[in-house]
Amino acid sequence: MDKQRSNLQAYEYLCHIGEAKEWIEECLGEEIDPIVQLEESMRNGIVLAQLAHWFAPGTVRRIFTEKRLQFRHSDNINYFFKAIKLVRLPNIFWFELTDLYERKNIPKVIYCIHALSHLLARRNLAPNIKNLVGQLEFTNEQISATQRGLDQAGVSMPNFGNVRTSLKHELNEVDEEDDIQYEPIFVSKYSSAIVSPTTPDLIEESDSDDEHVFEEEITEEEKNEVYWSEPKNLANLIRCQSIVRRFTVRKEFNQIRDLHKSSLFESQIKNVQAQARGVLARRALEDKRIMYEDAEEWITNFQAATRGFLTRCKYQDKLDYYKANLDKIIKIQSFVKTKLVGDAYRKLTTATNPSVGTVKNFIHLLDDSELDFDQELTLEQLRQSVIRRIRDNGQLEAQANDLDIQIALLVQNAITLDEVLGLSRKMNKKVQRRMSEIASASNNNPYSLRSLDKDSRKRLELFQQMFYLLQTEPKYLSRLMYIMNGQESADHLGKKLVETTVLTLFGYAQNSREEYLLLKLFKFCISEEMSYMEDAQEFMRGNYIFMKLVVHYNRGAKERKFFRDLLQPLVNTVLDDDFMDLETDPVNIYHKSVNLEESRTGRPSARKHTATSQEALADAEVRDTFIQHLKRLREVTERFLSAIISTLEEMPYGVRFIAKELKQSLEENFPEEPKQNIVKIIGNFIYYRYLNPAIIAPEQYDVVDTVITPMQRKNLAEVSKMLQQISSGKVFDANDLFLAPLNDYVFEAGQRFSQWFVSLTDVEDAETHFGMDMFADYGNTHKPIVYISPYEVFHMHYIVHNNISGLEPENKGPLRDILEELGDPLYSPNLDMPESAHTEMSLTLTNRYDKIPHDPNARLKQLLVDTKRFLLYVIKIQNGNDLKAIFTQPITAEHEHMWAELKHIEFLDREESQDVLLKRRHVLLGTVDDPPTDLMSLNFHQLKTITVKLVLNLERCGVISSGNNYQDLIKMIAKDITNKNTRRKIRQGEIQRLQQTLTHLQEKTAYLEEQKGNFEKYIDNCMQNQMNKRGKKNKFVMPFTRQYFHIRQLQKDGRVPKFGSYKYTAKQLYDRRILLELTDISPKQYDRIPLVISMNEVGIIEIKGSYAGWGIASMAVELRFEELLQTQFNGIQTMTVLDGMAKINVNLLIWLINRKFYV
């Protein structure tokens, strides 16, 4: 019985909702949600706000129509409160904001709508609400669901049947249906009496039936006399007559009024009035004309005096007003001028093809100040100083390299390793290490890059040049990685070795130079991959080699510290909570619940062990756990997301730079791609490639030091999955149906994450961040060194050699030149390399073209600058629609006069230094050897002629075209105007970088001079030490020999060389093959030609010979021993001495010198 009563209550409540629904639809003229959904759909207040706007339009400003429930929807409900207050609905029928927004008392809201309908119906402002109880049908499920909702709300049901009575009570009014309207009844009654012939019969008679007894006995005339003699009947008659008279008078009045309102009457009256007014006006006009003719002169003078007085008064008032508001007028004028100039400048900056007139308005902005010229002079002087210093350092470095080779040759020639180390104890450690490397180098291993012979050293230099080129020219490695990525046949180990070699080449980005170069490589790789893509989304699907390098780069020390600072507290919150479980699969939750129940009770569970997702969610315990997991997952995800977004400034520069280049490349290659899609790709890179690995595996990034359990890993994976979905900008679909309740949060969080991704790309360029420029390597004291194994060197040579056609498709270039000199690779996939090839070595990188950078287009750029400067002078003098019109315009004397004035302003009247004025007026138009052109000496005709020739020269060079009337030049000048401040900033930055480079070059100069001095000192000490050792040994000289008499003669003359002297005949040296030939002398005469080899100074060998046929007593030549070794190293077998008269064998001469002076 109670259930039936409850169902009846729910049914009646649904009917009342239906009544309110139909009444609202009748008012609004549109359908709203069904009855069973109306309670939920009304929470946002949209329907109530529309209803309020219908019966009280002025109360609703703007309806918030967002479908997802937000707090701003409360504004809609407040509009409804404002409207019912306006129509004075008693407060007893009102509901609270929370009754509807939080669904605390929806029946009271429906009750309020019922009361409002009755109130508006009483005032004829709305239709009556219908009674639908018993007329609507609902299913048992709908009635039961409604009753459950009422039971859960716990509110009492209003008395809908008594709402009309309650409203009348509150308003203190009588029911309109019971009111008596006397006036309409009265008018109806007496209106019919006027037109009816039986009007007296309509008057009520109160006589009794006895008065009718004598009616038949008297005549009709007597009856009338008796009837009208009654006072009451007479009064009624008088009232009837009054009504008739009033009706008759009104009827006549209405007829006359209708006549007056008729168009015919009005037109006749108007004609009469017009004729009368015309006569009167003409008469008055004639009188005035006669009067004015008599006083015409006086009136004219009076009018003139009056107008003058009034004009002077107005003018004086205006002057007084202007003087009183002078400050305001100046401000207004300034504002107007600023507005006009701003509009013109905006037109200059935004127009695709700005006109000559627009550019002419802003030409003055290009006039360089004295500060600009000073900075230009400073910049040029710094460039020249840097260039000179680079040249000087190049010479010093070449000399140091030669000395280095000579030291190596000395060591190889005769000095043992122990002797070298003993001699170099007083030298710096670097020289000692270098000597040790040279002394221990192997000359027989073909895979050794340290052998001291010309071929090995040449091969080493070529490898140094090749790896320097690969490191500093990112186009080669970017193309190589693209080629290898597309080669399906490329073996995995080969790709892996290339990745390792590239990372080794860049030193794993451990210093600023290598990090800068590695980031430039990533930039070129992105550009290379994008150039072959047809769809922007393809980037996210690719598995690129360079992206693996990015992953390795992101595991550097800086990145690990960033991850530790950011993620350690977040990950610890997950790891420290032993009871945290973020499982979102209902089936898994169901299985865990069954297992827990059986573990707790020790008995099989009554629930079945297999269940679908729907069956699992039907379980109350599983459903509650599932909801709790979703809430907890959202909380943890929000904590991670908020922490990540707050680290904009702490984010390492490298990943921000890559994101920036990725964004720019996408926008350039896919200009039609929506911005949100580009942001999604950037988000995929930053989160999926960078942040996600550190969240899933924090122990690999030093975020935590503990072991992570499977449950903890599962929780981190769930958080990572949420963040991945947020970063993609998409909500969960059918594949993740059970995470769909979080879609509102995912959408909102995705907006924040996207904004953060865009903010990350706002970062300075790499050159500014690292302070790098084209002179950076020239200023470094030490050349870059790469620690790499010969195996990696030979393998990279093999890979580059096999793919050279893709790396340099032009069939010429520096890389091809190096490979041609290197020859065929020593590496082969089927060849086993020796163990020594896997030993790490240091490879000092060298620039093959270690010369001053030269821009091949420098002269063309200077020509363009000069052309624009001349063109500016021409535009200042002459006007035209385009440049071609200006060039064809004739020159007048006025133009020459204007040019003369402009020359004085530009070159004479400026308050600038003399150097600046001279630089301004002189322009170098020819070669460096030609004298500069003095603009002061040119007339305008000459100036214009030179300008036209310069423009035609640029057209021949393909810089501009006459097809668009040289509009390209106008656009260039407009761009120069808008970029003036930017150019100043760039110039200041260049000055700072050049000053820093010059400082580094000076430091390098000091270092090279010191190194050169150390090498020279080492050579001198080494040779002196050898000679000292040799000097202690007194070799026995056979008496009465040629050598014996030679020594005696030297002793007698006091000319004994300090380190020895040996006399031979040419025949003796010829027989030993030391002497190859003497020019124009027969070998038969060699025994009569003496040759003396002596050494008086350390390392200086003197060869002296005499022959009567030479025309002079004797010939002598001094040779430095290290130069002889250098000649031998260079592979020169023979050389001429004694002014070309003698030809000797270099190798045997060195052997003789070693034997006589160093052994």
TrEMBL record:
Stretches assigned to coiled coil: 984-1011
GO biological process, one term: mitotic actomyosin contractile ring assembly actin filament organization
Entry keywords, A to Z: Coiled coil
One Gene Ontology molecular-function label: actin filament binding
Record flagged with keyword Coiled coil: yes
Residue span, Ras-GAP domain: 500-728
Entries under Pfam families matching the protein: CH, IQ, RasGAP, RasGAP_C
Entry keyword Coiled coil: yes
A single Gene Ontology CC term: mitotic actomyosin contractile ring
Protein name per its UniProtKB record: Ras GTPase-activating-like protein IQGAP1
Domain Calponin-homology (CH): 14-120
